[in-house]
Amino acid sequence: MTNPLHAPWRMEYILAPKQDGPCVFCGVREASAAEARARWVVCRAERAFVVLNRYPYAAGHLMVLPYEHLGTIEDLDDDLNAALFKLVRDSVERLRQAVRCEGMNIGINQGACAGASLREHLHVQIVPRWEGDNNFMPVVAGTRVIPQAMDETVATLTPFFADLDV
Known about the structure:
- By secondary structure, the protein is of the alpha+beta class.
- It has helices spanning 9-15, 33-38, 78-99, 137-140, 150-161, and strands spanning 41-44, 48-52, 62-66, 103-107, 124-129.
- Strand 1 and strand 2 form a beta hairpin.
- It contains five helices and five strands.
- The chain has a five-stranded antiparallel beta sheet.
- The longest helix has 22 residues, at 78-99.
- The chain has a domain at 47-129: 2-Layer Sandwich (HIT family, subunit A).
């Protein structure tokens, strides 16, 4: 390969300690506005919040999480379940408006064998998709092309979630 493409942001994830220490998702409710922004938080609702995935599959890849440190969907009580999935639905609507995607992947990975890299804090993945967005790069080069920087993505999305912030 004469012109390799590099994805240096992946090395941060590969070499980072895996869940030694405090949960990376806990403390968002109490975080200052500057700290929340540094953690890529898009919206803090009453019972859950929306954050950019630090290692996205596509620009605008979101995660919706309860503030409570719960590991599985079975751990949610009925009220938290309703609040979490209302925020998922609201996030889908706003993400579609913000990035004009043609489709979305929405899901929860529970357990390592299901692909959950952060198993201790339940989160719902929302990945915007466009026709032709998954080109040859992941297959040939093992690299995803993310066409927008994280700072730009959070700046683009945050206004669409302003009415959900508490």
